[in-house]
Amino acid sequence: MTETKTLTLAVFESESQLSRSKLFQWVNLYNENNSDVKIEIVNYLDNYSDSFEAFNQIKVEISAGKGPDMINFGGQYSPLDASSGMMADLYPLMQNDESFDKQDFYYNILESFEVGDSLYVLVPTYRIDSYATANNELLGLERMDIKQLADAYNMLDDESILFPGETKKAVFGMICYGSLENYVDWGEGICHFNSDSFKEILNFANQFPLSLNMANDYSAKAFFTEGRALLYPVSIDNVYGTTRIRTLYGETPTYIGYPLDSGNGNMAAIVDISIGISSTSKNKEEAWGFLRSLLDGEFQDNTESGLPLRISSLEQKLEDAKRAEFDSNGEKVVKERLIFDSEDSVNIYEITNEDAETLKAIISKIEFSMTVDSNLYSIMLEEADYLFNDDRNVDNVADIIQNRASIYINEKK
């Protein structure tokens, strides 16, 4: 009789979150269908007050040659944690798996989560974070850098804005959140926050107000429908995303993405699963078998939040979304809504071929992921506050961020 191996999967979720999670449901199904391998979920938040303490405990265990077989970081994933020796590189396991064919997937999305030349986590479903624009200065561009963004903004009339909620901190935070690929080499563990383009972000953000004074009749939606907002923050987590945005603009805009010095500015982002194999696991092949199952058609076809990596699964979802459905009264079924706070929602019943092709074109060009270390991000926001509130010199603020970030990154290596 074949011995059953038990593999441990570390998670960091409340009990209610865990019970609702797609990963939890998949583990139960996987265990039902496999007699030789069982996955045991270990929720580290059961014994530690927060995820910071839990992460540290796992690091201690792994450094001692122990720890779980797999870790789901979820949305708390940091490339600095994954590349610090905690996690195994998944690429060799992929390459040795004869059943894995990269042609079945949007492989560039997998690659967008690389750290150096290694892949430490699998993100089986993802969303797209970007900026859309219908501005004549930016239309048709494959990408923009911070200077192009500043130039386009400076050409706007007095009635126009960058985006709703444009304060110093919001502009700086939102641009930096998706542009860290400019300034951090996660694999080498070095950063460049004293570069000219980063200083340009600081200067650009500093021209906005510290706080907002909104009129009673303020309408965020009107800024876009009337063409008075330069950028629309975009988050696409299902096949209706490009339809929502086309409906808002009345036409298909340019998905310009985040300002980068090079490369495409549209970002892949984690929805709820970013799972890897710990470097000390003695069951790496079996652990890869479980991770690999997250790429199978059964899982990918049934994703409810996030876009599937498997090409055939996305194609099926797009085809389904193109077909209008009708209820028992012969009325069209609402499949999606365009919603703004305090505004009437707009119903969406189906998508067009153009919407589908737009989405696939965005996906195929993605090069980078939005993987942000929360502590590093906090350092940037904290020091930028001294520029915004105390009128410190931009060069000095950039140098301080560079110094603090370098120390922090070195400590995490």
Automatic annotation (TrEMBL):
It holds the Pfam family SBP_bac_1. It comes from the Bacteria. InterPro entries: SBP. This is Extracellular solute-binding protein. The lineage of its organism: Bacteria, Bacillati, Bacillota, Clostridia, Lachnospirales.
